[in-house]
Design a protein that fits this description.
Rossmann fold, seven-stranded parallel sheet, 13 helices
């Protein structure tokens, strides 16, 4: 068995899909006897990372300042001293620091360099650093198509499609919340008892489709449907004005007891399971669509715009939930159809966390043993 030393680089470990994926890969490495190190500026997930057997190096490689360049030389020395086999950058600024450190090392002994493109970044020289990996992981077909379109110099052989996945044990098909959870839920939201619930997960930031969601609820209520809407997500820093605008809009439409703002919640699995439908209405295409996959994994139907990673997942798993981007009439009709008679979500898992982890570690092992070039 090959024993690897792998260093993953992210700006911070505070939360979010990139950070969760980093921790999942780190845990898989340690469970298989490899050495795992994560370099970040710190964050609330560091304790979990350490508890699961990885090491953490607190270097602020994601701080947008010219001073961040000073980390190039310490990183180069550290990579050589610790004999790191795989250097894996998951964000643009850390990727620049990693690449500048890496390219100054001996090509025959330096780590193998991997990048993951997690988002549909603006096309620029700054973003192009994510194409410099010896292998470039695309987290969805949407990302792979984006790379092929905007970075034609990136050879197809260097792109590795490894879709994100959810843990079927964490989001089991047919899951039902506990009696205690239901009791607390209905104490907090008594109006939801015995009525259809539509849920829009995601932080309160523009382009996530909150306005369309509120309008959808208003239209369905006008048709006499006794539905309620949940907007589940915290307010992003600097977005309080937007959150207030949404709340005023709900009040103006007479929906104050119908569209509910839950704020940030840690019980998303239970909320998905308690929902009649989950919606994904981002105006901009998303790179993957984790919330969509989590809901579908539980068996909860999803309605989502037909673009980006959300459209990709729905086409593969639940095409009945696809609706044209930005078309409120079509969205209303699609939602109405599913409220009347939603086809069941297939129980067979498609995008699993285990497959993502297996493919990532296989890439590390294969790349570490592949021939090197002095170029």
């Amino acid at each position: 068995m090959v024993h690897l030393s792998v260093a993953q680089l992210v700006p911070a470990l505070d939360g979010g899909g990139v950070e969760r994926g980093t921790l999942e890969v780190a845990q898989a490495l340690t469970q298989r006897g490899h050495r795992s190190v994560v370099i970040s500026g710190n964050g609330r997930l560091v304790r979990q990372l350490l508890d699961e057997g990885s090491e953490h190096l607190r270097w602020p490689l994601g701080v947008k300042s010219p001073l961040t360049l000073r980390w190039i030389w310490p990183l180069r020395r550290w990579l050589a001293e610790r004999r790191i086999d795989i250097l894996h950058a998951r964000s643009r600024l850390p990727a620049w620091i990693a690449w500048l450190a890496w390219r100054g090392m001996d090509p025959m002994t330096r780590p193998r360099f991997v990048t993951t493109v997690h988002g549909l970044y603006s096309v620029s020289r700054y973003s192009a650093i994510m194409t410099q990996g010896e292998r470039v992981i695309a987290v969805s077909e949407t990302i792979r198509d984006y790379l092929r379109c905007h970075y034609p110099q990136l050879s197809a052989e260097r792109i590795q499609l490894i879709p994100r996945g959810v843990d079927a044990a964490q989001f089991p098909y047919g899951y039902q919340p506990t009696v205690d959870w239901w009791a607390k839920w209905y104490r907090q939201y008594p109006q939801l008892r015995n009525e259809p619930v539509l849920t829009l997960p995601g932080r309160l930031s523009r382009l996530k489709g909150h306005e369309e969601f509120i309008e959808l609820i208003a239209r369905l209520r006008m048709q006499g449907l006794p539905i309620h809407g949940l907007i589940v997500g915290g307010v992003e820093p600097g977005r309080q004005r937007y959150a207030s605008q949404l709340q005023r809009r709900v009040q103006a439409q007479g929906l104050s007891n119908t569209v509910l703002f839950t704020g940030h919640r840690t019980d998303m699995r239970e909320i998905y399971a308690a929902s009649t439908l989950v919606l994904s209405l981002s105006a901009k295409p998303e790179s993957f669509g984790r919330t969509v996959l989590e809901a579908l994994s539980l068996g909860t139907p999803v309605v989502g715009y037909e673009h980006g990673g959300v459209g990709e997942i729905l086409r593969c798993i639940y095409p009945a939930g696809l609706t044209p981007v930005g078309n409120l009439d079509a969205l209303t009709q699609r939602t109405l159809n599913l409220l009347i008679a939603a086809p069941p979500v297939p129980a067979e898992p498609v995008f699993t966390r285990q497959r993502m982890l297996d493919d990532t570690l296989n890439l590390y092992e294969t790349l570490s043993q592949s021939p090197r070039s002095r170029a």
